[in-house]
Write a structure and sequence with these properties.
Layout: H1 3-11, H2 16-25, H3 34-44, H4 47-52, H5 73-83, H6 93-103, H7 114-126, H8 134-144, H9 153-173, H10 176-190, H11 220-230, H12 239-247, E1 263-264, E2 272-273, H13 287-299
Parallel strand pairs: 1-2
Length: 304
């Protein structure tokens, strides 16, 4: 299928996040265009988002630790941003406060890292719900980077989420501290072609597989998505990941989810999700993966 046919077919679907991501990332519509603003409002009212927010109590908070995987305030806000939910949503202020009070608590047991500060930066700024606390999170994360650049799959996941949040902060705030950190993170990740060991093998089988969502993990598609956001997708060292992505495209032009990092329901053993994001199946399309993959390929100037 041609680019136009794939985009047209997906744009005709009822799911607003699909129409939003295709119009934004494949049809290259301006983010502030009226139609995209309307679609973001539709995403906010969708069954998907209402399910993510189903555990809100009367105060507008979720009665779980903010870091609870994947149902706590931090991870719910992360998913709202990744889906493209409406900006400046006052109904999220209590959830934002819950997450930020925890993130900035001097006695917080969790270490400063990309999956926390980086993802928080992204959702505070993308959802336009920052009340001034994003700058403190950005500078704290940027100052932590010398200790955070490892070579394991977990470390690459942290670096990618840090890069995503800091890149948005640097762009919106014209912040040089964040900009310098973005350059260092991007070079660290590109030196490893986003997902490879020095010998060219994947960091792990998981890193070379397609997922949605990635949460705090890394895979090559998420790496490409972050590089597109950060303005580094044209770097030749993204080529191996782009070629791997194209090799996984199905005959109808879509892409599958091959693995997952969540379990559906309230099992209580961690990694619980109220939303079924699409069961892994290498031969069946996944709308979330497809939207992200097509957006990356379009940004890279690839034909698909």
């Amino acid at each position: 299928m041609s680019t136009a046919h794939i985009a047209r077919a997906l744009s005709a679907l009822d799911e607003p996040f699909v129409r939003y991501k295709i119009r934004l990332n494949v049809s290259a519509r301006p983010p502030r265009e009226r139609e995209l603003r309307i679609l973001r409002d539709e995403i906010r009212e969708s069954v998907l988002v209402r399910t993510l927010l189903a555990e809100l109590d009367a105060t507008g908070r979720i009665p779980l630790p903010p870091s609870h995987r994947w149902r706590g305030a931090h991870w719910v806000l992360y998913m709202l941003a990744d889906l493209g939910s409406a900006p400046r949503d006052k109904s999220l202020w209590a959830l934002r406060d819950q997450a930020c009070e925890w993130l900035l608590d001097p006695d917080r047991p969790e270490p400063i890292c990309g999956a926390l500060e980086g993802n928080a930066l992204y959702y505070l700024l993308f959802l336009e719900i920052d009340d001034g606390r994003a700058d403190a999170l950005a500078h704290r994360l940027a100052g932590r980077l010398p200790k955070a650049l490892g070579h394991t799959p977990a470390a690459f996941g942290q670096a990618l989420t840090a890069l995503r949040g800091l890149a948005l902060h640097a762009r919106l705030r014209a912040d040089h501290t964040s900009g310098d950190a973005v350059a260092r993170l991007a070079e660290h990740l590109l030196a490893h072609h986003l997902y490879q060991k020095p010998d060219g093998r994947p960091l792990s089988a998981d890193c070379a597989s397609l997922h949605y969502p990635c949460y705090e993990h890394c895979d090559f598609l998420f790496g490409l998505k972050v590089m597109a956001d950060a303005g580094h997708l044209a770097d030749a060292r993204c080529r191996a990941a782009l070629d791997l992505l194209k090799s996984k495209q199905l005959a109808d032009g879509s892409f599958p989810a091959e693995r997952k990092h969540y379990r559906v329901g309230r099992v209580g053993k961690g990694d619980d999700s109220l939303v079924d994001w699409g069961r892994p199946n290498r031969s069946r399309p996944n709308l979330h993966v497809t939207c992200d993959a097509l957006g990356v390929l379009h940004a890279a100037g690839e034909r698909f």
